[in-house]
Amino acid sequence: MKKEKLLVVGGGFGGVKAALELADDSRFDITLLSDQTDFRYYPTLYRTATGGSRANSSITLRALFEGKSITLVQGTAETIDRKLKTITTTDGSVLPYETLILALGVVTNYFGIPGLPEYSYSIKSQVEVARLKTHLHQQLIEGKSPDLNYVIIGAGPTGIELAGELPSYVRRIMRNHGIKHRAVHVDLIEASPRLLPRLPIDTSRMIRRRLKRLGVKLYTNSIVQGVTSDELTVSGKPIRSHTVIWTAGVTNNPFFVNNHFVIMGRGKVATDTYLQAEDNIFVIGDNANTPYSGLAQIALHDASFVAENLRRKASGKDMKTYWVKKPITVIPAGPKWAAVMWGKLRIYGWLGYVLREAADFVGFKDLEPWRQATEQWLTGFDRRDDCEVCAIAEASRF
Ligand SMILES: Cc1cc2nc3c(=O)[nH]c(=O)nc-3n(C[C@H](O)[C@H](O)[C@H](O)COP(=O)(O)OP(=O)(O)OC[C@H]3O[C@@H](n4cnc5c(N)ncnc54)[C@H](O)[C@@H]3O)c2cc1C
To answer: How far apart are CA 81 and CA 73, in angstroms?
Structure first.
């Protein structure tokens, strides 16, 4: 039987889920192209960035696909040839397809703010997380004192998650390295009039109160104009800092503009009701112009939806039309506290934290078998940092 050549580009939530869903179907010959060797579980990267284990937010693609008939290719997709039905990578490899799923995720956008690319930190990958942790350690160990201000730009979910954990992480590093206790100043800068501008105002207020209690100072209506090696300018005023963390801006993957896809609002790719940008070219997850794109749960939903339709097509059935899944929003803000928005229901505090833990388990289980998912979920409680001194000090406390 001739198999259908399915090429999946992107080894993130959407790409991995789509490949796994179709891996056991012998009608498909699946290749997954990714520019990374690892899958990044973004929702827990803030934890890794604040003293948690790297294993909690990273799994090798090889481990994820073990025993599955998926050919894994490492490379960066650069161009598409629609006539020949091929994808060419930056190193010149040419990958053929009959059906293509594009799930390339978003990239960081600095909005042209001077100094940001050079002087700011970020937590969008393990490399960026490691760079931030090394900086936090070096600065504390060499200066024997915390930075004057730790500044996080962007009061969206990532900025809030990080702001909630950073004060206690910096205090922990000081304690682990025997540095005299000093006050830690964390500032959260937001250009909009309130934090989480896209979410309900009551949630925004509750999280604001929570962050205040943790000692985080929130600056709304504040525009970052530039960053240098030792200060940043916010709405005309300088703030002294050697630790500026950018969580504010992302933009769609440049692959789509470069390859002349039809682009809609927010830079997302136009698709039909089957998530096809063009015949047999499906665009899913953060790349697609769907109402809630930008969330892992939506990328997983899109992947399952497209996989089901490909199975239907292979069986000679009509494809189903896309149905919009309303996401459940869970935002952690500091140790053992999270805000949950589930339709009209709101939960704040410890119960929110428990639900967030459960959501992470479901997230791992979506991609891994029970045993691996459980093991990975448990690494979330592991406080073993990359720093040996911190790791020994933390271990001796338990
Ligand atoms: C710090 C952070 C925290 C987040 N927290 C949450 C959360 O708590 N809950 C939630 O629902 N969502 C969260 N998100 C959003 C969520 O992670 C994304 O919506 C989700 O990852 C989108 O899945 P995707 O498959 O579209 O893209 P991704 O998961 O980003 O995967 C894209 C993959 O494609 C690869 N790639 C990119 N370009 C190329 C190329 N040219 N060739 C080959 N490969 C390429 C990338 O390296 C990556 O592996 C968070 C995001 C971040 C950054």
So the answer is: 18
The whole-angstrom separation of Cα 148 and Cα 160 is: 20
Report which secondary-structure segment, H or E, holds 224. strand 224-227
Looking from the CA of residue 295, the nearest atom of ligand 1 is 19
Three-class SS of residue 42? helix
pLDDT in tens, 168-222: 999 999 999 999 888 999 999 999 999 998 889 999 999 999 999 999 999 999 9
| Residue type at 269 in one-letter notation | V
Q: What is the pLDDT of residue 104?
A: 98
Ligand 1 atom with the smallest distance to the CA of 39 is 49
| SS3 label, residue 348 | strand
CATH number of 116-248+329-396: 3.50.50.100
**Topology classification of domain 4-35+75-108+250-314:** FAD/NAD(P)-binding domain (3.50.50)
249, two tokens:
């801006």
pTM, two decimals, is: 0.95
Where in the chain are the domains? 4-35+75-108+250-314, 116-248+329-396
Q: Is 328 helix (H, G, I), strand (E, B) or coil?
A: coil
Q: Which residues line ligand 1 (CB under 6 A)?
A: 9-15, 33-36, 42-43, 45, 76-77, 103-105, 123-124, 157-158, 253, 255, 285-287, 294-297, 299
- 10 Å CB burial of residue 74 (0-12, 13-18, 19+) is middle
